[in-house]
Amino acid sequence: MNQQIVDQLAKDILSLIEAEAPSPENIGIRGTELIQEFIRKPGVGDSLAKLDIRKKVRLWGSQGSGMQILLHGADTPKRGSPHDHGQSWALYFQVSGATEMSTYKRISGAPGRPGQAALEKTDQTDLTPGNAMFFGPLVIHSTQHSAPPARWIRVTGTDLDYVERLRFSIERQEAVIEKRYR
Question: Which CATH architecture has domain 3-179?
Answer without folding.
Answer: Sandwich (2.60)
